[in-house]
Amino acid sequence: MLKAKPEILQSGLQESFLIRAFGHEAFFAPYHYHPEYELTYIVHGKGKRYVGNRLDDFSDGDFVLIGPNQPHCWKLDQPDIKASAVVIQFTHDFLGADFFDKPEFANINALLKESQAGLSFLHPKMMTKYILRLRKSEGVERVLHFLDLLNELCRQKYETIDIGALENNADSQNDSNRINVVMAYIVENFKNDISLDDVANVANLTPNAFCKYFKKLTRKTFVEMLVQYRMNFAVQQLLHTDDTISAIALASGFNDMSYFYKTFRGKMGMSPLAYRKQFME
């Protein structure tokens, strides 16, 4: 059974933060989390991006900042196609415990706090020169270029990926770890049959205790969250494939076609076919 596990990052003795280039093998990483911030720039690739409770498409130029312990992964639509990314990982205190608390860094500090929900930057092409410059530099120059990058990100437009993360009601690190494991299970299995007993077992709780726990931390029931993932996937398939409605429903985890149509109409205000047609006109 797949579970989200903490990723342990090892920086070199001469590095205060990590910057690495990855090939397509990085896109096979499981849904995971770690205590570092992460900036991910997709050089080339197309697929699905999972951050917290959100499922979105990604393509060339996707640029995202993710806060500590926010579960995430990128999955390619076609695993055999070449893909690449640049990833920067750093801790809040990589330049000292109180560095970003200085008044001169108020904007960066605010950006880092908001990144707990995940931030997707809307004009990533403007940032490529900063990434290239950062990769070519070293020593003090690299640190200065990184601060320049963070400062520029404060000026860029972005959207919050998983707004629910800003309202997380976890009372402890154990709660955070447990909900991450649960969300990892949902992300990896929402296309399949998942029972309440299955997911409660993942959380090591009774079904009744799990329902209360899950609602407290996510403000959604388990079924609502499961349907959200399935609906998001179905909508993306409607817009980006020519598959039949029934094939999309089944691929998204809806085995009951009447339930799929009823749910889709309730969420989107129209049938799946009408939704697809409005984007084809």
Annotation, overall tally of beta strands: 9
Order of helices and strands: EEEEEEEHEHHEHHHHHHH
Mean pLDDT, rounded to whole units? 87
Q: What is the 3D form?
A: globular
Annotation field: number of helices: 10
CATH overall fold name of the largest domain = Jelly Rolls
Percent helix: 40-55%
- Helix- and strand-based class? alpha+beta
CATH architecture of the largest domain: Sandwich
Number of domains: 2
CA-based gyration radius: 20 Å
pLDDT < 50 runs, ≥5 residues = none
Cα separation of the termini: 44 Å
At the fourth level of CATH, the homologous superfamily of the largest domain is Jelly Rolls
What does it look like?
The protein has 281 residues and is α+β, with helices and mostly antiparallel strands. It folds into two domains: 18-164, Jelly Rolls; 190-278, Homeodomain-like (Arc Repressor Mutant, subunit A, Orthogonal Bundle), CATH 1.10.10. Helix content is 41%, strand content 16%. The chain is built from ten helices and nine strands. The strands form two sheets. A six-stranded antiparallel beta sheet has the order 1-7-2-5-8-9, with no helix packed on it. Strand 3 and strand 4 (54-58) form a beta hairpin. The longest helix has 19 residues, at 222-240. The mean pLDDT is 87. Pfam families: Cupin_2, HTH_18.
Give a short synopsis of this structure.
The protein is α+β, with helices and mostly antiparallel strands. The protein is 41% helix and 16% strand. It has 10 helices and 9 strands.
